[in-house]
Hints:
This protein is of the alpha+beta class and about 160 residues long. About 30% of the residues lie in helices and about 25% in strands. Helix 3 packs antiparallel against helix 4. The model is unreliable at about 5-20 and about 30-45 (pLDDT under 50).
Amino acid sequence: MKKFLPALLLLAACSHTTKRTTTEPIPRRRSEPARTREPAPTRASDRLTGAPTARAAVSNFLDAVKAEDLQAMSVIFGTSHGPSRDNIERSELDKRLVILQCYFTHDKFRIVDDSPGEGGHRIVTTELTRGANTRTPRFYVIAGPGNRWYVDNMEIAAVRDFCRK
Length: 165
């Protein structure tokens, strides 16, 4: 019984809590930023992947390549199922995008043509210039969820010398 009583008192002491009955906010340290309950609203355009047109998909993809922005590339590079960032394991995707970035790095580009392709694709022919070299690869673009367009494939062979040092 002597051992039981101290354990009971310890348990009672640990379970005792004080209630705060005031309605005043809990004071914060000055360096602690104010917290909000809900995240800031985002625009619908901030959440969209792909592009509204096949030409815009190629243009956005090439802009992301030039900016060396793998994240931006991953929301334009995709299939009819959507962006590659949602459909390919991240480490594999990063490897693919780095390779594509090497081949398609350019000083300037110009979209030459946009025509229908097989299986719902649009073929967007571009003119890429890097230094004194100009090449004309085709990009194969396909509509995905929400009628957004994704760069599905491209002609790497046309720009293979762009990646050599």
